[in-house]
């Protein structure tokens, strides 16, 4: 294999380089989570024979990851169903199924009616601080920055 620039690699994969988030690294944990899921799959090989093997594996993996794998961070939906606007319909069907299960076997649910997972409004690795916490912290943080710059 030979080395390519990032732009060449993205072009060969049909991807577009994004410059919308320069110097922002808070999306890295999402990517790391996806890579861990990939590496822990039973079909992940110890080694790839060639570049074409990597492409073949990744095409199959990302098809599964986006269309079949249920993600706990998005209400046990697939990314495709959420993206395609099917989430509300799926959750409504789950709610009916859970209600039927409750009616038929209430002892299985330890005294509470089961509810389907909800779709989060936002997904965070580290949620931003609330506005009040930021205001309370700001003067102290500014003072510390000034002190460090003078030392």
Automatic annotation (TrEMBL):
Which residues belong to any copy of the Integrase catalytic domain? 14-79
Q: Name one Pfam family in it.
A: rve_3
Record-given protein name: Integrase catalytic domain-containing protein
User: Which GO molecular function annotation, any one, does this entry have?
Assistant: nucleic acid binding
- Gene Ontology biological process terms from the UniProt entry: DNA integration
